[in-house]
Amino acid sequence: MSSDKISFTNLIEDVVDQNRCVACGACEAVCPVNVIELENFVPTLVGDCIECGICYNNCPRTDFDDKTLEESIHGRIRNKDEALMGIYTGIFAARATPSDIQERAQDGGVVTALLSQFLDDGGDAVIVAGLNEEQPWLPMPTVARTRDEIVKAAGTKYTPSPT
Fold first, then answer.
1. Which of 2, 7, 15, 45 is exposed most, by the fewest CB atoms within 10 A?
2. What is the pLDDT of residues 41-81, one digit of tens each?
3. Cα separation of 142 and 89, whole Å?
4. CATH number for region 8-58
5. How far apart are CA 50 and CA 56, in angstroms?
6. Is the pTM of this model over 0.90?
7. What is the distance, to the nearest Å, from the Cα of residue 93 to the centroid of all Cα atoms in its chain?
């Protein structure tokens, strides 16, 4: 980056212009002055950027030093055998047991079951990838306050899904 301050312009140059943006909506969600909006799945500045760098630093597609991260978390960097999967302590397979979750969910329904358990344990709400009723092929962030709302949103959406 050419300037000392990180801004939305850097996000555009390093991510959007390089075709690395996945339209997750993280930049829009974290902007403290609410001047970033996703327009047709593209982050767009709709006001004055304060150059805080929060959008850039929260983007999952900006580069970070994974060796430093691994060293701080695991006390070492990955070896040759871990090149693709990274450092891990175990690999597990799981499947939700409720039949209504199994019928709607993808890949075992574990996330759906965990979100449901969160509500059962006293959580107020969760954010799920629901569907836009006017354009049902487009997912949209939805607040789910009941188990039924969580199960209704279950299943993989094979398109960008803003968070």
1. 2
2. 899 999 999 999 999 999 999 987 778 888 989 999 999 99
3. 33
4. 3.30.70.20
5. 12
6. no
7. 22
